[in-house]
What does this fold into?
Amino acid sequence: MAAPHSRPAYDIGTPGTPWGPEERAVWLQRQQLRRSHQDEVVAPLLAALPPQAELLRYGELDYTRLGLGRYPLHAVRSRQWQAGRPTVLVTGGVHGYETSGVQGALQWIRDDFARAAERFNLLVLPCISPWGYETINRWNPDALDPNRQFKPGSPAAESALAMACVAAQAGEVALHIDLHETTDTDNSEFGPAKAARDGGVFHWDPIPDGFYLVGDTERPAPAFQRALIQAVQQVTHIAEADARGCILGEAVQQHGVINYAKRTLGLCGAMTAARFVTTTEVYPDSPTASPAQCNAAQVAAVNAAIEFLTHASKES
It folds into this structure.
C-alpha cells in the first residue's frame, strides 16, 4: 500500500511543466457552482445588519471574459466612524472554500458587531472571493490563489479590490484578523493542483487536527496569539505539533501557533501595518467539529482579539 504522501500526478498538464492557457482552461471547465453567494452570504448579511453598521459595495468581480458572471463585493463598516478610535479589520472568504471563514464573519456581524462598535471603528469584508465560495475553491477563475496576491499590482482582482477598500475606508488599522480553514482537500486536491500548475513537486504534510493560528514573523505578538488560543480552546480543540515540532512544515512557536512571512508571501494579513495580526485556521473535517462549532471558533477568535486590543489600548 502506498505511503500517505505518495500521490499520483495531477491529471492536468505535464509533470514538471507549468500550466499554460490551455491547462488553465481545462481546470476552469471542471469547476461547478455548488452553492449560492447571493443566498448564503448576501441575503443573510442584508437580513442581519445591525443598526450600528452600514453596508458598502466596494467593487465587482467581472468574470464574463471567461464565460462566468459578475459578483458584487460587500463590506460592513461602523456607521459612526470616529477619528482617534483604534480600527479593527476582519476579513473572511479570501479562500472561498473555507466556509466558516465566511459564515463565522457573518455570525460575528450579526451577534457581536454592535457591542464592539461601542469601542472601535470596524471594517469587515466577509467574503472576498465569492466565486471561490460558490465553487468551493481555493483559487479564483484564473487559477490564482488570492491569498498569495496581496501585493502592489496584484493580478487577482479579489485581492486588489480588497486592498483598495481597506485603504479607502480604514486608514490606520490596529488589529487585523483573517478567518481561514485548513481542510483535508488541501492534500487531496489543492496542493497537488498547485504543484501541477507551477510545474513543481507536491510536498505532503499531515493536516493538523484542530484549530491553530498563523502569526506574522515580522509582528509575532506572542501574548496576543496566546490569548486567542486560550479563548478558542473553550470551543474546539487546538492542533498539536507533529513529531518534528511543526504544523504543516512550520515550527510551532507556542501551543497552536506558527508564523509565516506574510508580506513576503503576499498574504491577506500583510495588507496593513496593524500592530496585531493573525490568521485563524479552523479544521472542519474533524469528526468532533460541527459547522456550528467551526463558526463559533471563528467568532471566539475575533472576540478574543478585540478584547486583547481593548486592554492593550488602555495600557498604551
In short: Strands lie at 53-62, 70-78, 87-92, 121-125, 175-181, 212-216, 246-247, 250-251, 257-260, 276-282. The mean pLDDT is 95.
